[in-house]
Amino acid sequence: MEFSIHKATAEDASIIATLFDAYRMFYQQPSDIKGATEFITERLQQNESVIFIAFINNVAVGFTQLYPIFTSVGMQRTWLLNDLYIDSSARGKGIASALLDAAKDFGRSTNSKWLMLQTGITNAAAQSLYEKNGWHKETDLFYSINL
Q1: Which of 44, 61, 70, 116 has the fewest other C-beta atoms within 10 Å?
Q2: Which of 133, 54, 64 is nearest to 144 (CA)?
Q3: 84-138, pLDDT tens digit by residue?
Q4: Is the pLDDT reported for residue 145 higher than 90?
C-alpha cells in the first residue's frame, strides 16, 4: 500500500484535527474536535508550527507536528517534534518512519542543529520506533537526533 507525505497549510487544519484529536485521546485527554481544529488552525496561520500529513488514497492517516526552538550554545534553530500519530488502521506500514524522515529532511532544509522530542515513559512502541530511526535517548523521556 502506497502513501504520501505532504507539508500542511492552514487549509488542512480540519483534516489534521481529527487525527490530532485522536492523538490527544491517546494521552487520556477528552475529545474536542472544535478545540483541535482551532488549535491547529492557529498554529499554522501564525507559522508557529510545521505539520506533515501522511495520506493513503487521499485519506489522512497520520501526522507529525514540529515547533521551532533555538540552541543558544549552537546559535542555530532546532525543532521540537512534539506530536507524532498514526491511525491504528495504518500502523505497521512505515508511515511513522516516513514522517520522521520528512521531519529530518525539513530540519536539514532549515539549517537546523538538531531535532528533539519527548515521549511517554511507558510508550515502548514509540521509543522503539525512534531508536530504530536513529534517534538517541537523552533521558527517560527525551530523544534527539543530530542533523
Answers
A1: 70
A2: 133
A3: 999 999 999 999 999 999 999 999 999 999 999 988 888 888 889 999 999 988 8
A4: no
C-alpha cell at 66: 514540529
Residues in contact with 110: Cβ distance below 8 Å, sequence separation at least 6, in sequence order: 77, 79
Rounded CA gap, 38 and 102, in Å? Answer: 24
pLDDT of res. 144: 82
For the chain, the C-alpha Rg in angstroms (whole number) is: 15
What are the sequence ranges of the domains in the chain? Answer: 4-146
C-alpha span between 144 and 112 (Å, rounded) = 12
Distance CA 101, CA 135 (A): 11
**Taking the domain 4-146, which CATH number applies?**
3.40.630.30
Residue 96's contacts (CB-CB under 8 Å, 6 or more residues apart) are: 62, 84, 86, 129
Q: Are 135 and 117 in contact (CB under 8 A)?
A: yes
